[in-house]
Amino acid sequence: MRWNNTFYYICLACNSMLLFLAFFGTQLQIPSWLQITGRMHPLMLHFPIVLLLLSIVWEMSTRGKSNPEYAGIGNALLLASAVSASFTALSGLFLSNEGGYDAPTLLLHKWSGIATSLLAFSWYVLRDRIRHTSVHTISIAALGVVLVTLAGHQGATLTHGENYLLAPVSDGKNQPAVAMEDALVFRDLVRPILQAKCMSCHNARKLKGDLNMETEASLLKGGKNGLLWDSTAEHFGLLLQRIHLPVAEKEHMPPQGKPQLTENEIRILYLWIKNGSDFTGKVVDLPENDSLKLLAAEFLKSQETEQYTFSAAGEATIRKLNNDFRVVHPLAVGAPALAVEFFGVAAFKSEFLQDLKEIREQMVELNLNKMPVQDADLKTITTFTSLRKLNLSATQITGATLSELKNLKTLRQLSLAGTSVKAADLEGLSDLPNLKVLYLWNTGVTEQEIADLQQRLPQTRLEYGFTGKDVVSKLNAAVIIGKDDVFNSSTKIMLKNFIKGAEVRYTLDGSVPDSLHSSLSTGDSISIDKTCILNTKTFLPGWISSDLATRSFFKAGITPDSVSLTFLPDPKYRGTGPNTLINNKIGDTEFKTNKWLGFRETNLECLLYFDQPTQISSVYVSALANIGSFIMPPAEIEIWGGTNKNKLVLLKTIRPEQSAKLAVSRVGYPCDFKSQKLKFLKIVVKPVKKLPMWHPQKGERGWVFVDEIFVN
Amino acid sequence: MEKEILEHGLHLNRRKFLSQLSVGLGSIALGSLLIPDLFSGGEEEAIMGGLPHFAPKAKRVIYLFQNGAPSQLDLFDYKPKLKEMHGKELPESVRNGQRLTGMTSQQKSFPLAGSKFKFSQYGRHDAWVSELMPHTAKIADDLCFIKTMYTEAINHDPALTFFQTGAQVGNRPSMGAWLSYGLGSENKNLPAFCVLLSKGKGNSQGVYSKLWTNGFLDSMHQGVQFSNGENPVLFLNNPESIDQADRRRMLDRVASLNEENFKTFGDPEIKTKIQQYEMAYRMQTAIPEVTDVSREPENIVKMYGPECLIPGTFAANCLLARKLSESGVRFVQLYHQGWDAHDNLPTQIVGQCKDTDQASAALITDLKQRGLLDETLVIWGGEFGRTNYCQGTLTADNYGRDHHPRCFTIWMAGGGVRPGVYGETDEFGYNIASDPVHVHDFHATALNLLGLDHEKLVYKHLGRRYRLTDVAGKVVPGLIA
Question: What is the pTM of this model?
């Protein structure tokens, strides 16, 4: 009896824990010692199945008989079932946390397992009451059978895969994947599609539309509406016509509500029919880059999830091998396979590679990109015989010792990009049976050698990348570096060039630089001492010369003592007030900055005042054009001057040209007049009232934007 | 990693845990379940920052974010119907009363605007690509075009924040921060999450540091923004008259002070700080090594375009992204601004494409030729799409498009993505016809490619567990090879 009690309490504890974990256990991580318990689930599960079924049989056959001996055996059986069921369910819960199972099946299995455990336990607890009534015994026994069957079946599905039980009798729907090399276009690509989407109706028994798609002969025969394909008809005949009809149409196939063909399936049917609907052709015989072949590659792709059978490296070893410049980590939680990466060119030492011998069995990826790996280091690498992926890009190997790698029989990917290996060095690689991709960009292998190499490595995809050979690119213009757009006596600027060997030429007179006569920038600073426009272009043989880069420089003039505006600028573009016009700060082509004053409804009309009569002969209005944003050259600029504010005379009027070519650019308007002493200058800049006929928004009002006015 | 989550989240140590539970065999077993190192003892840190839940297809991400929302109708989603009906009214049956932005909801008419640009089909999946993207068209076989992305947000900032953090309102960790938290840094000498910015000439929208925030995660997971100047990472160089040896001594001394502090207060942020100082020290050599483009061969310059040598351009950032990624940076986030073409779309989009097309395609080719594409997930796309109707006045060859969250195209490449064309929009390019992909689904799928179960990558904060996908998101099997 004492044993009974002990087991009872263990069973109670296990079931409580089971419920707790089932509801709140999603955040748990299983420690490794408990994982062992989890992995014993497949062993343990046989006990509750047998014991519970035995209990069911026992309870059913002894029902109604009140023999204490029978009851004693029944009690023992029920308790054993309850204990083993709770252990099994708990271990299953631990195992499920390791992941990798199909979620919906797992969910069902988990809950049916838990239910089984609870059922067995409550049966034991309530055993006397249940035995009292025959109906109770029958119902709980039936429920027990259902739960055990359900949990058992779902568990088997998890381990052995979907449809494991019925596979021998179901008609081969889950054929094993066919290797690309053996696949036939019809048998392995076309027929599975017809089988999945058409044959449920068009078979020898149902014969919908008198069409049977099961055999080659019956396919060729067609149905009551005629042949399935016809190279002269629209969509190559009936089959594709029906598929292409809108789904809602009655004639559309497969009928609405049935599983429809995917785009790729339609393409496969289309391409196969277009190519002559051949029943015997092999996929591998199709030309390289043939659309059907590429599609086939996708369809026939076998599941490439790799299974690693080696044991995991110790956590302490992994920890020890990790440092700031060498990272060793499992591919995922719980995976034995390790990936190793190196970082930090300056810190690299060959010994760092040799240290990895400890994990040579587990290391499947090694990334040495950019590290100063030498030819001699390949001797070390070749001992890492589990490698699947090896990246030696931009290392210092010359290729002389590349044949060392022939021991890496499992190698799938090898990158040699950016190294100086030559075609001859790659001989040894033909010994690598699993090499799928080889990266050869920017190596000593020439384009001519690639075709030859491909013949010797037929299973390997060679990635040659971008050579830039026939590409003619356009240079970019030098960047003009200079602090001051407006200077007092002189300023220094630099032209910064980015492309090695390119010539930077410039002019200061507004003309476009050419590659022969214009000044050549040496890279030193250039001194500018007068208002000018700097134009620069860059030239290099084999390249298209750059666009023009341009920037205006202004020598500061006579600064007025004050400035006022008759009309306020648009509130959005009011700069830093009237002073914006004489603060020696130039705006760039971005008009939404406080360097610019913008006017649309009114003229820009400003009055410059000089305390002393000053000798003045010109005014320069610096403005902006941004045709797309309606910012146009001024319709007209008037310069008025005099010594009496109320008696100003018109000194100059100019009407700038309106041109779409200006696009987005800075513009400037020098207004020269007879030199004279002035105290007042009134400058009127008028926006265009109507955008010109060529403008997309012709007729709208234009804007003027002015950032500075220079007086000389 | 789950251990770290637990220790952070619960702030439990073993003794506390055991003393709070009634002692017994069951509770020891339970305790050992919750703290797996219970019996191995020691305060050692995990082998790595973290490990994927299952074997990953991709190890790293490069996200080329096209900020402002590129017009899918002018780039990838070919709709001849719009051309046919150019200028005609958008049928109400198509819009069906769906919400519009304040910028066009007051518009009296919604004239359909067909794309001005020519489309052709490329590659074995016959993907449509417009003439604006000739380089992208050439690599179409490597790309997975998702034509049926959709989002709930209708304005830039919430939409962008949604894409980056899984929530429209700020303060949640960014995708890169989640990855840094979940997978840790590959290269201990560089941050796990780097951010690079560039700007096109088109109408642009802001990007803010909240987009690469660590949110409630440890601050070491925050994105590090690179600058375009001489020093890509600011304040990394030693000040004048301080050499490496001085710096080392200083850091050692500071670390021992911090350790003292940690013993007193036990705040994990102190540990983080020590680690960050150490990483910065190692970055002093790692950053110049990784950002040096002067030794890139000429064909690389030609492939990305010569602009790639000018710091701050999208091309330069793509090249730098490759260099960072191959050096083990988990998540390189680029933002290219300027796609918000409410008006003058045909002009603006030409410039934007010129800035991005060649370099984006070059990045794919470059990763591929080095054998890195299969372990790097590259994503290209904006925060939503643009409308099929014109914003403002429609003319024969000029139009603008408003924000359209109901369907838009992004592409992904490499890292276990199945190349092809996924999903279909209706003939007006307004609604999704089949296979919708929500932003949460996109996040779930991206995490899956990286070996992470989006439902398990959680962090407990303010009393509940948070995920990048929050309480939604489904992995889209059709996107996975």
Answer: 0.71
